Amino acid sequence: MHTADAAGTAPDFYLDLPDARIVATEALLEASENIADTIDARAMSCIYGDAGLGKTFSVRAALKEVAPDLVLLLQFRSRPTPRDIRMELFDVLHLEGKPPAHPSEFDRLLKQALARRPYIIVCDEAQQFSRECFEYVRHLYDTGKGKSRPAVLFVGGEECYKTLYNEPALASRIYIWQEFTPMQPAEIAKNIPLFHPIWANASPELIDFIDQEAGGGTFRMWSKITHHVLEGMKRRGLSEVDETLARWAIRRSRPARPVRRDNDR
Fold it and tell me: Looking at residue 49, what DSSP letter applies?
């Protein structure tokens, strides 16, 4: 749902939503506790769930108290290979010289570098990882000892969970599993008025209506809807949200109906 410019800094809201606030949801508080425990145990953990539920945002919010130079964020736009992971670690560790040409030499260099400080490897969008990539990260983890072993966080969608769970050598090493799910109506009623000032005085009925129609219990959709509502209020000279404006924002926030394909006959 959200991104951050750098690990260890406060995360940014989706669409850079002005005046949005971090809400201490149950999932965020649980993630903060789980991440702290993972770091303390120098363990590997997995935080997973559908897109838009706030996994990345919660992880980076929890890591904001950690020294930024200890957080090694690995994030790839497409499916990486073990060599891609080697190269990314070489960059985020700020190692000097040219990357070694041979994998064994490269791995030896990375293991030595990772043992120097209590690093936290964050594998974001880990649903992109193949079994070989997970195994490679596990290999780096297993070669560490005691407090010199890096803590590892896998953060991703359902495929991340499935790959890890279905490989016994990987699943047995996961210290904590946390699944992110959509907020329930009671959580929406509690959290959305705290999320942005425009919802502070909105009626519970209006908030529930918006969530049922489009919000879906996810902060990403609520960020999008809020952004549209703010634009609509500015255009119309409004100071409060009403149902007419909410319906307009909802129409802009989602497809009106499924796109018809040629073979849908």
Answer: E
